[in-house]
Amino acid sequence: MKRSFTKAISVILCISIVCCAGSMAAFAAEKKTDCGADCEFYPTIIIPGLGQSNTWVLDDNGDFVLDDEGNKISSFPAYIQIPELIKRVIGPALLSLVTQRDMGLSTALADAIELCFGINTCDNEAKPSEKVFVEKYPYPFSECNEEEMAEINSHIPFDKYPTNLPEDHLYYFTYNSFGNHVDTTKELCEYIDMVKEQTGHDKVNIVPISQGGTFANSLFEYYPEYMDCLHKVIYIVPALDGSTIIGDVFNDRVTFLEADYLYNGFLEEIGLLDANTARIIEVVARILPDEVLMACLEAAVERLVESVMTTSTGMWALCPSGDYLTAAEKYLSSPERASIKAQTYRYYQAQLNSDANIQKLLDKGVQVFNVCEYNFAMINVGETWDTQNADYIIHTDSTSMGAYFANVGETLPDDYVQKNTYCSNPEHNHISPDRVVDASAGLLPDTTFYFDGQRHDLTQHNSIILKLAFKLIADDEIKDVYSSPEFPQFNAGRDVREIETIIDQAKAVDASSLSSEEASKLSAAVAEAERVLESNTCTAEEWENACMNLTAVLIEIGVLEAEKVPSGFFEKLSLWLYDNYGTNGYSEMPLLTVKNVIGGVKNLVTGIIG
Ligand SMILES: [Zn+2]
Ligand SMILES: [Zn+2]
Fold first, then answer.
1. Which of 157, 585, 600, 606 is the most buried (most CB within 10 A)?
2. How far, in Å, is the centroid of ligand 1 from the Cα of 36?
3. What pTM does this model have?
């Protein structure tokens, strides 16, 4: 490696950068390592995803607002103030219930949304509220206190999968997800300068994760000189072209504002509730007429989008380029929002130039890697949710830099031929074994790793992705998807929590209480579970079987109880209601008894109020 030459060039460039931007000295420059920049490692900066930075609520005096237990209160995703919420909503809610009309409930709910999320509203210059404090770590991981380390480990478990990279070479950049995108990008530059000064190294690695990917876009577009300070860029599920969730929400394509879907299936398909709970909510929701409920939801969504989300350039950076122009026309056309529009339009250019800028990195010799997750249906909030492959939060076109995918649950046609848009090596087969992905159509066919069936927000529970990322930041052994059989291009998604829990439970069993047959069954099942957990390349089926087998043995020896299958009563009830009464609330149903009861209560209440 021609280190001295690149070092000289970098020094010249960096001097010029420092001279051009005298203000970029926000972080302390004290030396934090004594490697003398002469070690085998590159300092690495994690740029985490949405909500993976601590942001705290401040009061008018700039002091932390504390809860009853004396803990700081998070502003992400909202500052929930329960007593105030109840005070505002309870009256209109009761009135609306008894009158079965919208007696100020929709307005009260919209106000409640603003009360909670309003802390994240930015001003007309797209500047966030001064009442949001971003916790920062202007020093390496080795100098973080216990609390800070725990916070970082909760997002990226360095404690669980140790990396060879020394902790004084590891940095965690934080930002406000609802904040100002332009300012955060500038802060990222300052942070890179700080890391270089603290370590003495002239090059760093950056690891943009999810929303962090949007800051890589803007960094390369607004400050291309920083490309020369980079050794490696390791993207993890980056939102390089936003997420269709935001594109749909910003363009009035919200599924749960369709009554038929809301009353039948939305909650179950959202993936956050079990089927029974989802159906119970559907049944309970009918205590209000559908018009009232829909008016409430519409008012709440409108307020959230209009007053909070569309003031934040951080949120705008998550809008796909294909959706930006129509959404900007709708929300940013007024003269008051001209500055927000200018800032988002600038980012829109960065988004359009994302591939070209990554190509520039490659031309400069920067190594660029990517991790993409697929075959997990998009959360069903936006209308386009089931029209393309996704990882639950981001559509794969965005995270894969344009690779070609069959939709979730489908495969590429039998006669499909690899596109080879970006791969010219005829030896390479970039079609996934499950015939869902054609990686050759993505910008980085030879350095993008794909994980089947992996959910975006559970990435930190995929041991393979973590081991891969930590290997990439620690050394240069992996050059591409062919470097190591341990890390092939296509791999399976996983969530290690369940298998780890049952292994622990199995190991805690007192073997002397078991028959010899039971004991040997148990130890064989544990051995297989441990094998698949350690293996980076076991199939999804092997994983599943090992989990099921160990669970079955634990049930057999009485450590676990067989899971009770919910009766499906509420599903049947909800479907019966939907089939017979559509989306109507109970008061709208031609049931004399219900009508009589409601009428009685109504008379009583109007009697009292009147
Ligand atoms: Zn070093
Ligand atoms: Zn290739």
1. 585
2. 6
3. 0.90
For residue 1, how far is its CA from the centre of ligand 2 (angstroms)? 25
Q: Report d(CA 525, CA 528) in Å as an integer.
A: 5
Q: How many Å lie between the centroid of ligand 2 and the Cα of residue 403?
A: 12
pLDDT in tens, 205-253: 999 999 999 999 999 999 999 999 999 999 999 999 999 999 999 999 9
Residues 6+ apart with CB under 8 A from 558: none
Residues within 5 Å of ion ligand 1 by Cβ? 35, 39
Instruction: Say how far apart CA 212 and CA 177 lie, in whole Å.
Output: 9
Nearest ligand, measured from the Cα of 170: 1
Pairwise CA distance, residues 549 & 547, whole Å? 6
Distances (CA, A) of 178 to 48, 305, 377, 398: 14, 12, 25, 20
HEC letters along 220-262: HHHCHHHHHHEEEEEEECCCCCCCHHHHHHHCCCEHHHCHHHH
Residue 450: name the closest of 487, 483, 420 by CA.
487
Q: How far apart are the C-alpha atoms of 314 and 332, rounded to whole Å?
A: 15
Q: How far is the CA of 204 from the centre of ligand 1 (A)?
A: 10
Query: How far is residue 119 from each of residues 77, 113, 125, 259, 517, measured CA to CA in Å?
Result: 9, 10, 16, 30, 61
Q: Which residues pair with 395 in a beta bridge?
A: 390
Q: 324, 323, 341: which is closest to 332 by C-alpha?
A: 341
Q: Angle 338-352/212-222 helices, nearest 10 degrees?
A: 90
Q: How many helices (H) and strands (E) does the chain have?
A: 22, 11
Handedness of CA 284, 287, 291, 297 (dihedral sign): negative
d(CA 32, CA 375) in angstroms, rounded, equals 43
Indicate the Cα dihedral angle 206, 209, 210, 212, nearest 10°. -40
Please confirm whether the linkage preceding 166 is cis (ω < 30° from 0): no
Expressed in angstroms and rounded, the spacing between residue 194 Cα and the centre of ligand 1 is 14
What's residue 85's pLDDT? 92
CA of 551: how far to CAs of 350, 547, 562, 566, in Å? 49, 6, 9, 19
Query: What would the two tokens of residue 218 be?
Result: 């803007």
Give the ligand with the smallest distance to the CA of 431. 2
CA of 446 to the centre of ligand 2 (A): 5
Structure tokens at 442: 């993505």
Question: Lowest-confidence range among 18-27, 81-90, 148-157, 456-465?
Answer: 18-27
pLDDT in tens, 132-153: 999 999 999 999 999 999 999 9
540's tokens: 């999804």
Distance (angstroms) between ligand 1 centre and the Cα of 198 equals: 10
Q: How far apart are CA 100 and CA 94, in angstroms?
A: 9
